[in-house]
Specification:
Helices cover 43% and strands 16% of the residues. The protein is of the alpha/beta class. It folds into two domains: 5-296, Succinyl-CoA synthetase domains (Rossmann fold, 3-Layer(aba) Sandwich); 301-474, Succinyl-CoA synthetase domains (Rossmann fold). It has a seven-stranded mixed β-sheet, with helices on both faces. Strands 2-1-5-6-7 form a five-stranded parallel β-sheet, with no helix packed on it. Strand 5 (76-79), helix 3 and strand 6 form a beta-alpha-beta unit. The protein is elongated, with a radius of gyration of 26 Å.
């Protein structure tokens, strides 16, 4: 176990103070130029030294003809160069004293016997000079807190809390926009490629020690150091959750993974058993991977199960109850005190079972504050799931009947709607319990979009919400078991 994150071979790769960049030019259409542009776009604050045999300036930066011409020894070298140049360039870096690299360049183990031989040459050079590198055949790293992005997509949004290690080269960069729409982002993400000197176990160790990472996600196509992986995972899950998606469990997935990074996959049941033994939560898809990470990084895990559902329509409430029931989740009966409190807020036509179907409340605004407050205080409520269907058109119609002008509706009406969204998004912090929403409206609905922006997880439909909640409960059980074993 690392005593300090600075001990990790990934620390200078994810937190470099200076970078030597090979393969970038003033032709922005090239891969190397594109990656350098991404580094510059995120606002990386360290020194960048483009190395180019002909150009004297690259994208506004002074360029150098060779590694030996660099005025300093950079912390990191990034390679986006032809395959044939990778080995001699790494040798030049070694002679300069550079100890860390990202080798984006492909054409190694993943392409067969000749490529594997070239990769062995890379390893020989790396071992000679004590160099550790990500790749080859990877896309590098994103560290939003260090403003470092070596991928080919520009990163937008605030620094996040999701750490990731991916055996898919460009997977991380393809998730930028998806996560941003959910109000999420990576803390640090690694594309490991062929894992020549740094593998997914090293990434797991780094992310376990990373103070900006609340939850670790893994995209796995094959694990070589199985025992080390399990030992490291067991240590980490005592402090933070790990969610993994194993993509090579089927025969078709296995073939795709081998041609992709040269990964050696195994049968799905073996990997699932491995995950269970070391406390890793298994996701069945990429969507589920990040749904789970969303809740696990947002809330503390309850030590016991128990979901209370609130809806103002019977169908969505029944579907949510069914989704929870199919996953073995508990919907506790409400206490007499809770039912009494509800009786003061809802009409006699409302259902005070669980799910609680308000239908129509005496005051529509009670749906977002007063009624949830009663339900969240129920002793059986470990997690609160609330249905949202609040189209602005319906509110506008009510305001028109009250004599409001269109200008008043557009300003004061939206302010009121956003105010209620803020209130419901703050329930979790107020009552120290997970509060999760679901809806059939688009995620760009103003009410939903604002709630997500304020940090509240809202899912398109109850099935995804229920599966993510189960992961939260599952991690609570894992933590309880781990702490119990340590005490024993």
């Amino acid at each position: 176990m690392l005593t300090s994150i600075e001990e990790s071979p990934l620390f200078p790769i994810a937190n470099p103070k200076s970078i030597a960049f090979f393969g970038a030019s003033n032709n922005i259409a090239s891969m190397g130029s594109n990656l350098l542009a991404s580094v510059l776009a995120l606002g990386y604050g360290g020194a960048i030294y483009p190395v180019h045999p002909k150009e004297t300036e690259v994208q506004g930066l002074k360029a150098y003809g060779s590694v030996s011409d660099l005025p300093v020894v950079p912390d990191l070298a990034v390679f986006v160069i032809p395959t044939a140049l990778a080995v001699p360039t790494l040798d030049e870096c070694g002679r300069k004293g550079i100890k860390s690299a990202i080798i984006v360049t492909a054409g190694f183990k993943e392409v067969g016997k000749e490529g594997a031989a070239r990769e062995m040459e890379l390893l020989e050079v790396a071992n000679r000079y004590g160099i550790r590198f990500l790749g080859p055949n990877c896309i590098g790293v994103i560290n939003t807190h260090h403003k470092l992005n070596t991928t080919f997509m520009e990163h937008e949004g605030s620094p996040g809390f999701i750490g990731m290690a991916s055996q898919s080269g460009s997977f991380i960069t393809q998730m930028f926009s998806y996560l941003d729409r959910l109000g999420l982002n990576f803390s640090t993400g690694f594309s490991v490629g062929n894992e020549a000197t740094i593998d997914i176990v090293d990434c797991l160790e780094y992310l376990g020690a990373c103070p900006n990472t609340k939850v670790i996600t893994l995209y796995i196509e094959g694990i070589r150091r199985g025992r080390a992986f399990m030992e490291k995972a067991r240590q980490i899950v005592r402090k933070k959750p790990i969610v993994a998606y194993y993509a090579a469990g089927s025969e078709t997935g296995k073939k795709a993974g081998k041609s992709h990074t040269g990964a050696m996959a195994g049968p799905d049941p073996i990997y699932q058993a491995m995950f269970r033994q070391c406390g890793i939560i298994s996701a069945s898809s990429v969507t589920e991977l990040f749904d789970m990470a969303w809740l696990l990084g947002t809330f503390s895990p309850p030590s016991e199960d128990g979901i209370v559902i609130q809806t103002h329509s019977g169908g969505p409430g029944t579907e949510a109850a069914d989704a929870c029931g199919r996953l073995g989740l508990t919907l506790p009966s409400l206490s007499a005190e809770t039912r009494k409190g509800l009786g003061e807020l809802v009409p006699h036509t409302a259902s005070m079972n669980n799910p609680v179907d308000i239908t129509y409340s005496k005051d529509p605004m009670h749906y977002f504050n007063e009624i949830p407050a009663v339900l969240l205080k129920d002793p059986g409520c470990r997690c609160f799931l609330i249905y949202f269907h609040m189209p602005f058109q319906v509110i506008s119609r009510a305001f028109r009947k009250m004599g409001w002008t269109e200008d008043m509706i557009a300003t004061r009406g939206r302010e009121l709607l956003m105010g209620q969204s803020n209130i419901v998004a703050g329930l979790s912090e107020r009552y120290k319990k997970p509060v999760v929403g679901y809806t059939y409206r688009g995620m760009d609905d103003p009410f939903i979009k604002n709630a997500v922006k304020m940090g509240m997880p809202v899912f398109p439909g109850p099935q995804r919400a229920a599966r993510a909640i189960k992961a939260l409960f599952e991690y609570g059980h894992i933590r309880t078991k781990q702490l119990g074993e340590r005490a024993a």
